[in-house]
Amino acid sequence: MNKFTTRVSSIFSFASSAFMVMILVLAILTRNYQDVPDVKLSVQDVSLSKSGIPDYYDSSSKNAQHARVKFSISADMTHLFNWNTKQLFCYLLIEYENSDDTRKKTFDNKVILWDRIITSPKKAKINLKKHFNKYSFRDYNLNFINARDAKLTLVIERVPVLGFFTNKSERSVDISFPSE
């Protein structure tokens, strides 16, 4: 009972428990998310075409209609960095509804068009003018004829060193797909 190893074990056990409680308290205290005050998001053009990047694993992508979105973003996120911020993950999410005429069903779609990982406050200013989507954008119905209620949203997700992930939709813009 009074051995040296028993005393070391109990000291280590107490120190580990105190350290875990301290980490939990710090994770809860730094969970707050601040808004990004001056975010400007605009869509200049949405164009549809039959030519796009064909998908090697999906033979129907050759006949699919591909959408190309031209957008501009301006945001300063330097104040989101503190001692507990590891990185910021920013992405443009487009949400729209599309109905399938053959099954008489409506689908709620969410597609990421563009993203960026920001690892330091020096790179935390985004200023993109007339930029196009980074990833291929097509619907599995092969066209955007029945697409409606489209909304483009800038989402910023804060990845902490310690604690919980927080994400926030900063700015949304309604867009419409052109008719053929």
UniProtKB/TrEMBL annotation:
Stretches that traverse the bilayer: 12-30
Alphabetic keyword roster: Endoplasmic reticulum, Membrane, Signal-anchor, Transmembrane, Transmembrane helix
Chief location of this protein within or outside the cell: endoplasmic reticulum
GO biological process, one term: signal peptide processing
GO cellular component, one term: signal peptidase complex
Top-level taxonomic group: Eukaryota
Location(s) in or outside the cell: Endoplasmic reticulum membrane
Bilayer disposition of the protein: Single-pass type II membrane protein
Family, per entry: Belongs to the SPCS3 family.
Cited function: Essential component of the signal peptidase complex (SPC) which catalyzes the cleavage of N-terminal signal sequences from nascent proteins as they are translocated into the lumen of the endoplasmic reticulum. Essential for the SPC catalytic activity, possibly by stabilizing and positioning the active center of the complex close to the lumenal surface. Essential for viability.
Protein name per Swiss-Prot or TrEMBL: Signal peptidase subunit 3
UniProt organism field: Smittium mucronatum
